[in-house]
Design brief:
Shape: globular
Number of helices: 12
Largest sheet: 9 strands, mixed
Number of strands: 23
Strand content: 25-35%
CATH class of the largest domain: Alpha Beta
CATH architecture of the largest domain: Alpha-Beta Barrel
CATH superfamily of the largest domain: Glycosidases
Strand order of the largest sheet: 21-20-23-18-17-16-1-19-22
Bound molecules: alpha-L-arabinofuranose
Number of domains: 2
CATH topology of the largest domain: TIM Barrel
Distance between the termini: 30 Å
Length: 530
């Protein structure tokens, strides 16, 4: 029976294989001549917010002698984060951004004020003990964030306050960051905080979720505010790129009304938009736990995470109605699963232990971004540490990486590659599990004669044996790195920090390759083409 792209119907044999965990037939064909755009490294960005344990006890440990640190920044994080090659990190929010006065975190640390955190009134934190998660001591401000980015090898992306701040505050934050040493009072304040030279921050968010916690604006109202914020901001040596608050998931009206209003005086206004921020969380399933869920919950999450592809396509079409020259790109600056437990430490509002399910959500999503490389300028997983879709968990002297970290580490090889069309055929998942989903999904990028193919197998129980080939080329060899576990709920914990980790092995060439993708796995194949 022939296998058709995305229309493979389970044969009796494959059906039996799915039930008994035997390998089923699949096919992956890489088509090097059909290019989809260069994958901006910034697609592999991260997000950090003054929320729960992300900043305090996550990134920032202060001068606590019990936790090794680099000028107050957690040393274990600094030493590990470069493995995922973070190109860009967003801060300070999130919703927190639209309550934040950047001056509170500027200049000498000893003189900074304490403020009630935006999230302090949330049910969970309201019940918790007092601490920096509730009453922010502002010890981690702009200087500390930029230092952290430099230690991580990432560019800073600052999200400005549009709801409770003013355009003047925005101008002055840019001046604080980017004005040359010694030229202005704010440059001197920056130096008093320990950094004489400008930070040269290129990425600036103009509010966050301005349809919700960022002010409750309509698209029209926000467009007027946006113009007021970005017109005639002070310019220094570093060109600044503005990111507009975009839609909440499928809110197409926001995209259309914002862009229409923004350009009412002409399309020139689009020059002031680097990207339109799209936020989409796949959420959770079942009882909300990240580590205690059913097989049905597993498939619910797979189906919810691939919704990202429709959202990108839909908003992209609407953007094209106004942006005829296609200058504008999407910036998916918040994405991830969002489970509902908070079990890492007291006051870590959305801190939970990500499992293999979260690894699959990551792989599925990053492959979607790669396949739409021409439409996406940046994406930021929410959030880097101790919060929601975390790559790291830490409290006090404890520190671990999560399966999400492993996916980022594996997928980093795509950064800067050329995304190429890849036809993937595999058994359809059974209807009751996830309507419309197939076992395998993935993406491929090329750099010279090296192909990086990443593939998820969403089937929780059945492996898929697939022929992997490259149109017009031969595979002369390579290696496979697979993240898999016997249990879909497997996760790393402080007691068992290496429970889930990828394993690498060579694969033989000889033209094409037959590879067996394990159940519930994320795989990277590095292929040398001849
Ligand atoms: O990432 C957590 C929150 O989710 C952010 O603060 C907000 O932007 C979004 O709703």
């Amino acid at each position: 029976m022939p296998i058709h792209r995305r229309s493979f119907i389970l044969s009796g044999l494959a059906m039996a294989a799915a039930r008994t965990s035997l390998a089923a037939a699949g096919r992956v064909e890489i088509i090097p001549d059909d290019t989809l755009g260069v994958i901006s490294p910034n697609i592999y960005g991260h997000f950090t917010e003054n929320l729960g344990g992300c900043i305090y006890d996550g990134i920032w440990v202060g001068e606590d002698p019990n936790v090794p640190n680099v000028d107050g920044i957690r040393k274990a994080l600094v030493e590990t984060i470069r493995r995922i090659k973070p190109p860009v990190i967003r801060w300070p929010g999130g919703c927190f951004a639209d309550s934040y006065n950047w001056r509170d975190g500027a200049g000498p640390r000893a003189q900074r004020p304490r403020r009630t955190n935006f999230w302090a009134a949330s049910d969970y934190l309201a019940k918790g003990p007092d601490g920096p998660q509730k009453y922010d001591p502002n010890q981690f401000g702009t200087n500390e964030f930029v230092r952290f980015c430099r230690l991580a090898g990432a560019e800073p992306y600052l999200a400005a306050n549009l709801r409770s701040g003013t355009p003047r505050d925005f101008d002055e934050w840019i001046e604080y960051c980017n004005s040359p040493a010694g030229t202005t009072t704010l440059a001197d304040l920056r130096a008093a905080g320990g950094d004489r030279d400008p930070f040269n921050v290129r990425y600036w968010g103009v509010g966050n979720e301005s349809w919700g916690c960022g002010g409750g604006f309509t698209g029209d109202e926000y467009a007027v505010e946006y113009r007021r914020f970005v017109e005639w901001v002070p310019r220094y040596a570093t060109p600044v790129n503005f990111i507009a608050s975009g839609p909440n998931s499928g809110d197409t009206a926001w995209t259309r009304t914002f862009l229409t209003k923004l350009t009412e005086k002409g399309p020139g206004a689009l020059h002031n938009v680097f990207g339109l921020a799209l936020h989409y969380y796949a959420g959770t399933a079942g009882n909300g736990s990240s580590t205690d869920f059913t097989t049905a919950d597993w498939y619910t999450m797979m189906a919810k995470s691939v919704r990202m592809e429709d959202l990108i396509r839909t908003h992209w079409l609407i953007m094209g109605e106004v942006d005829k020259r296609r200058q504008l790109k999407l910036v998916v600056d918040e994405w991830g699963a969002w489970n509902k437990t908070a079990d890492v430490a007291p006051n870590f509002l959305f801190g939970y232990f990500p499992s293999m399910r979260d690894a699959l959500v990551s792989g599925l999503t990053l492959d979607i971004f790669n396949r739409h490389a021409g439409k996406i300028a940046m994406a930021n997983a929410a959030q880097l540490i101790n919060n929601i879709h975390s790559s790291f968990l830490a409290t006090g002297g404890k520190f671990i990486t999560t399966p999400i970290f492993s996916v980022f580490e594996m997928y980093a090889a795509h950064q800067g590659g050329t995304s190429v069309r890849t036809e993937i055929s595999s058994p359809r998942l059974e209807a009751e599990q996830a309507t419309g989903l197939y076992s395998l999904a993935g993406s491929c990028s090329l750099k010279n004669k090296q192909a990086v193919l990443t593939v998820t197998n969403a089937n929780h129980a059945a492996a898929v044996e697939a022929e992997v080939s490259v149109r017009g080329a031969r595979i002369s060899g390579g290696r496979a790195t697979a993240l898999k576990a016997a249990d879909i709920r497997a996760h790393n914990s402080f007691d068992n920090p290496h429970a889930v980790e990828p394993v690498t092995a060579p694969v033989s060439g000889g033209g094409q390759l037959v590879y067996t993708f394990a159940p519930a796995s994320v795989t990277r194949l590095d292929l040398t083409l001849a």
